Amino acid sequence: MPVQVVARAGAPDAIVTALVVGLDDPDLLEEPQPLAAMAIAATSAAIDRRVTARRSWLGTGQNGRRSSAISIVSVQLDWTQDELLATDPVIEPLVAAGRRCHGGFAADGRYVSPRTQGRIPAIEAWQSAHVTAGGTLVAAPIDEWPEPYPNVAQSRYLLEEDVSDLVVTTLTRIGTVEGFGGLIRHAAVEGLQRHFDDSIAATTLAHLTSGLFEAHARDETGHGDEAGHKEMWFAARDIAFDRPFTDDETARMLDRMGIPAGALNSSGPPPDAATVRAALEAQRVHDDLDPAFEAMIRRMLGLMFIEVSAFHTFAWAEELLGDDALAAGDGEAARLVSYIRTDETPHVEYLRTAISEIRDRTLVGESGRRHEGRAVIDRLWAIGRAESLGPRRDALRQSTLAELECALAGNPRADEIRGGFHERGSLRPTLGGLEAVKEGA
Ligand SMILES: [Fe+2]
Ligand SMILES: [Fe+2]
Comparing 245 with 30, which gets the higher pLDDT? Predict the structure, then answer.
């Protein structure tokens, strides 16, 4: 069905886009006057940027046939926090390993992600408005991230050899990293408008601190009595290995991976202002942007790269945990991972939209000087990408190798299994670290 932008009204900070949907009847194209009049009327009526959907029948066409319907829809660009945190009703909650999780199931059995009733249409509306206003939406660079380490073949091999610890630790780490997403709350910068020369009203940026960061944090860490992704990954692990892992076991795994036990306490108070300022100054890249504003951009880019990398991890986990020969639970662990994956889509989408909105605006530095958003974003993007694919990934691979040795400790066939593991991978250990033996690894 064709979608055509027919009118745009308002100042840049109050863009209202009227879309005409359903122009599939040539008769209608012969009646431009009523069409134009309706579009303008609908646009004017929608100046408050609230949802307006009108459906009008133009009646019988000249050839006696009934004409197609024309829907004139104005897109809502201002959303309240309550709207962005609202969840569609479900008839059955999601319960995993005895724990009530967020989300649930609609009457047709479809999984319903939490807090997406308003959030998904809102993000779509901001994306549409950004492009309509001449902006560019940056793409999430999913293809630029390599396969997980260990990969499916290596993990499958270990499980077939009855060595499960590395996969258990990997699932624990993924859940833990998901929990770090809750820290986005502490990256929030109030009064964001002062960092922009152009208005940010009616954009994703204007809603970061009034719903979007909070929804993201709740999805990752849980909220109230509903578990979020961190515990959903732990539940998937416990279901697949048919036993609950204790908090002490989890803490020991995290300790071995160098993740401090208190690092996940994202719902507590933020660190004091002086500590935050010192940390921000130390990491500062741009010499004129407000350090907290720059840190928020870096945090959003870093999270987007984690989300992008996670898409490969989901495929790994769903294939592995969905195999009845390898995992207990009749596929329930894999289904749980698929629900988490579904929840992630709005995370990637709002982050890339906000980043795009910054990129296509003029920024105001601390000195009052103007800076091209494009230059700032492209520089921070390159730094964040290099960190994610470079030192952070190397550290993760080294930690995986250490976990492999831990899992093989005392195993009389350790050498043989270690060899079989590396044979199935795209990396080989060397004296200096790991060397790629396949392109793209
Ligand atoms: Fe997540
Ligand atoms: Fe996420």
Answer: 245
* 47 pLDDT higher than 60: no
306-365: per-residue pLDDT in tens? 888 888 999 999 999 999 999 999 999 999 999 999 999 999 999 999 999 999 999 999
Q: Residue ranges of the domains in the chain?
A: 3-74, 130-436
CA 334 to ligand 2 center in whole angstroms: 17
Ligand 1 midpoint to CA 340 (Å): 6
* Cis bond before residue 346 (omega within 30° of 0): no
In what helix (H) or strand (E) does residue 4 lie, and over which residues does it extend? strand 3-9
Ligand 2 geometric centre to CA of 303 (Å): 8
Q: In what order do the strands lie in the sheet with 3-9?
A: 3-9, 16-21, 69-74, 52-57
Please classify residue 123 by burial: count the beta carbons closer than 10 Å to its beta carbon, then call 0-12 exposed, 13-18 middle and 19+ buried: buried
Higher-confidence residue: 311 or 369? 369
Average pLDDT rounded to a whole number, residues 41-65: 36
**Any idea which residue has 């959003």 for tokens?**
300
- With vertex at residue 421, the alpha carbon angle to CA 417 and CA 424, rounded to the nearest 5 degrees, is 140
Q: Which ligand is nearest to the CA of 337?
A: 1
Please choose, from the candidates 332, 342, 318, the residue with its C-alpha nearest in 3D space to the C-alpha of residue 240.
332
Q: For residue 304, report the distance from its CA to the centre of ligand 1, in Å.
A: 11
CA 220 – ligand 2 centroid, Å: 6
Beta carbons of 371 and 288 less than 8 angstroms apart: yes
Q: How far is the CA of 304 from the centre of ligand 2 (A)?
A: 8
Residue with tokens 């894999």: 334
Residue 49 has pLDDT above 50, yes or no: no
Please spell the DSSP secondary structure of 338-352, one letter per residue.
HHHHHHHHHHHHHHH
In angstroms, rounded to a whole number, what is the distance separating the alpha carbons of residues 317 and 319? 6
Residues, CB within 5 angstroms of ligand 1 (ion):
178, 220, 229
User: Would you give the DSSP letter of residue 142?
Assistant: G
Please give the distance, rounded to the nearest whole angstrom, from the Cα atom of residue 8 to the centre of ligand 1. Answer: 36
